[in-house]
Amino acid sequence: MIPIVFSHPTSSLVRRLRFPLALLLSLASTVIFAEAQTLKPFKDELFAYPGILSAEKGDVYRVVDYREMRDINERDAVSERRVQPRYTSTGVRSVQQDLALKTDAGTLRHVAVGKTEKAAIIVLYLHGQGGSRKQGVDDFTFGGNFNRIKNLMADNGGLYLSPDFTDFGDKGAGQVAALISYYAERSPGAKIFVACGSMGGALCWKLAGRTDTGSRLDGLLLLGSLWDESFFASPAFKRRVPVFFGQGSKDPVFPVENQEAFFRSILAKSKAYPARFVRFETGTHGTPIRMTDWRETLNWMLSRAK
């Protein structure tokens, strides 16, 4: 690049340069903002939904073509235990740490991937019954989808957190809230999203209802999870925080009909509320954790973030 040097410019030259320079600066800032609000691709062709059977206007509700033979047996090298290598990139482990944070709520064990300070975006995954912080960072289970979110955060200047917590009640919610507070203070400009698998959804709704976290969260992802009508009285609902539901049509734990009814009630109570539902046809309880497109969902939420 050749440097441009101005030596005693005349006023007419300044006038001629002022508009294009201002335009360039404006365009540059727009590009930077757009990049900050959109996650760069990572193996999108492998993790895109395999087929849409039906969709409502604006992709508010979609039915995805899920097939166990294709989406588990052909995708995994060892069924449900180890995905084929092309679905993962394990170099991300170089920015992965197993940490313990001392707070008033107790010592919180958690795994952090990416920037623990000055992160552009923070995503937490809260496991379900019988899980642990290790589930959310396992590179090879659930079709490599946890490896993908780890790489998406690392590649986009973000932070991914997978914590342990005591229970799915108020104590567990307090612990997760303390973890969010700690990292939010170190990344004050970060958008914060919480994904909850199965019973972890109880914590999603409790966090939405708390004054501290409900006023801080920028999106909730319910993956094969439950519903809670207390959400309608929460700070998060009043702020119109985006909510994503992923549910298998044959989920034996949380029936899809119940979750769909709750989703519809959100739309009915608040016009054009930012909520989306993806139904994985023939999918079961763990299907949304395996099949949810992290990048598409988070980019949609980022586009709605205030």
Please estimate the helix content: 25-40%
* Total of helices: 11
Instruction: Let me know the largest β-sheet.
Output: 10 strands, mixed
Q: Which runs of at least 5 residues are low in confidence (pLDDT < 50)?
A: 1-36
| CATH class category name | Alpha Beta
At CATH level 2, the architecture is 3-Layer(aba) Sandwich
- Spatial shape: globular
* CATH superfamily heading: Alpha/Beta hydrolase fold, catalytic domain
H and E string? HHEEHEEEEEHEHEHHEHEHEHH
CATH topology: Rossmann fold
Primary descriptors:
about 300 residues, two-stranded antiparallel ribbon, about 20% strand, alpha/beta, disordered N terminus
Descriptive account of the structure:
The strands form two sheets. Strands 1-2-12-11-10-9-7-8-6-5 form a ten-stranded mixed β-sheet, with helices on both faces. The protein is of the alpha/beta class and about 300 residues long. Helix content is about 35%, strand content about 20%. It is globular. Helix 5 (about 170-185) packs across helix 6. It is built from eleven helices and twelve strands. It has helices at about 10-35, 45, 70-75, 145-155, 170-185, 200-210, 210-215, 235-240, 255-270, 285-290, 295-305; strands at about 50-55, 60-65, 75-80, 80-85, 95-105, 105-115, 120-125, 160-165, 190-195, 220-225, 245-250, 275-280. The chain has a single domain (about 30-305), classed as Rossmann fold (3-Layer(aba) Sandwich), CATH 3.40.50.
